[in-house]
Amino acid sequence: MPSRRNFLAAALAAPSILDAIPPVRASAARPVPAPVPQSAPSWPDDSDPAFWDRIRDQFYFPRSEAFFNTGTIGAVPRFVLERVIDDMRLVEATVARWDYTERTDNSISGYSPALPIRVKLGKLVNADASELALIQNATMGMNMLASGIELKAGDEIITTDREHPGGVCGWQMRAKRDGAVWKHITMPQPANDPEEIVRLFEAQITPRTRVLAFPHIISPTVVVMPAKRLVALAHDHNCLAIIDGAHAVGQIDLNLHDLGCDAYFSSPHKWLLAPPGNGMLFIRADRQDLFWTTLCSSEWDDHKSGMYRFMQYGTGNASLQVGLDAALDFHFRIGPDRVRKRIRFLADRLRSGLQQIPGASINSPVNPEMCGAMTVYSVRGVHGSDLEETMWERRRLRPRSMGDPLGVRHSCHIYNSEPEVDAALEIVSDLAKQHA
Ligand SMILES: Cc1ncc(COP(=O)(O)O)c(C=O)c1O
Asked: Which is the closest atom of ligand 1 to the Cα of 279?
C-alpha cells in the first residue's frame, strides 16, 4: 500500500508532457484532456494536518510567507503551472507540425471550442458544455453580456452599490451610450439578513426594469448573496438575473442549473487556482439568443454550437486553457467538498478568534448562510493599510487592505494553515491592546 504522502504525491504527479513529443507524428496533437478524476475515498480526513501540509508543497511561495489574498488572485499549484509551461514548450517544439486540419488540435485558443475542458468545467458548476464559454476573465464576461443585450432608453438595470468595476462598468456604459438607467441598492453594512437584501432589490423594481445584476460574493465586503432568492425575484418580475461569480467558482458550492440564473461569469484564476487569463461565461441554453456576440470572428453567428460563438476572440494562448484543465483536475483530485470544508474551517477559525478580541470588528457577515472563505475586519484606531503592513512586517502574512473603515480582507485557501490564522489573530490582539 502506498503511504499517505506518496499516494498524494503520485496522485498529483503528471507525466511529463514533453515525453509525449513524438519522433514521428502525422500531426501535433495535444494530449486529450483526462476525464474528470474521482477523489480517492481512502484519503485521510480533512482534519489531518499532514494531508494539508502535503498540499502546501504544491505551491511555489515560501513556507515562511502566508498568502491570504486569494480574493485578488489565487496562487497556482505546481501541478498546474508545470502543465502550462510543458504545453507551451510542446507548442514551440512542434510548431512546424501543426497542420490545422483538426480544430481540437489547434494551438490557438480563440479558434478552438475546447470542448473537453468545457465539459469538465460543466461538471463542477452543473452546466452543459454548450452553455459555457471559456473566455479570459470576469470583466470580459460582464462586458459581453452588458454589450450583447438589447436595451432601449429607459430600460433599467439594478445592481448593488458594492460592485467591482469588472462587474458593473459595462452597465454604466450602456446607460451613457443608450440612455438605459443604471440603479443600485445600498447594501446594509454589515449584511447579515438575506431577506433584507431581497427586499431592497424588490423596492427598486419598476415595470421598466430589465436586469438584476449582482455579485454572488461581493468583492469589498465579501457578502455571499442570497443568489437563488434574487434570481426568483428577477423572474417573478420578468427580469433577467445576471450574476458576477468572480469569487464563487472554487470557493462555494455552485450549481448553475439549480440557481436558475440567466447568465453567470467568473474568474477561475481566483479560487479555482487556474492561471490568470482564464474566464468562464455561462448563458442558459434558452436565453442565449437574447445576447449578441460582441467579439466577432468566423463563428460569431453560429447559434447551433451554443456558447462557442462567445469564444471568437482571435489568437489566444491555448496553454492557459490547459492550465484551467489542470486546475480542474487538481480541484477534483482533492475533492470539491474537501476544499470547501477546509477553507470554511480556516475562515470560521479566524472569525471566531476575532470575535474574542475587544477592539477588533468583523465588517463582513457572521451569519453562516452569508459567509464564505473571506472575512473583512478592522482594529479600532488602525487603518487597513497599516494593519496589512504590520501583518507583513511582523510575520510575513499577506491579507489585503480594503482601506478605512473596512480594514483588511482576509482570504483563506488550501495553502493556509491553522498556525497562520492564529498568527494573524495574535497580531490583531496585540494591536487592539496597543490602541485600547
Ligand atoms: C466581484 C468581482 N467582479 C469582477 C472582478 C473582475 O475580475 P477580473 O479582473 O478577473 O476580470 C473582480 C476582481 O476582483 C471581482 O472581485
From this structure: 10
Kindly give, in sequence order, each residue whose CB lies less than 8 Å from that of residue 91, ignoring residues fewer than 6 positions away: 107, 318, 319
Q: Does the predicted TM-score (pTM) go above 0.85?
A: yes
With 0-12 / 13-18 / 19 or more C-beta atoms within 10 angstroms meaning exposed / middle / buried, residue 386 is: middle
- The CATH topology of domain 109-328 is Aspartate Aminotransferase; domain 2 (3.40.640)
pLDDT confidence of residue 111: 86
Q: Give the count of alpha carbons within 13 A of 223, CB side only.
A: 24
Q: pLDDT for 342-401, tens place per residue?
A: 999 999 999 999 999 999 999 999 999 999 999 999 999 999 999 999 999 999 999 999
Peptide bond into 405 cis (omega under 30): yes
Choices 2.40.110.10, 2.170.270.10, 3.90.1150.10, 3.40.50.880: CATH for 337-434: 3.90.1150.10
Q: In testing the pocket of ligand 1, which one of 267, 270, 272 has its CB within 8 Å of the most ligand atoms?
A: 267
- Give pLDDT, residue 39: 52
How many whole angstroms separate alpha carbon 142 and alpha carbon 152? Answer: 18
Cα of 222 vs centre of ligand 1, distance in Å, is 12
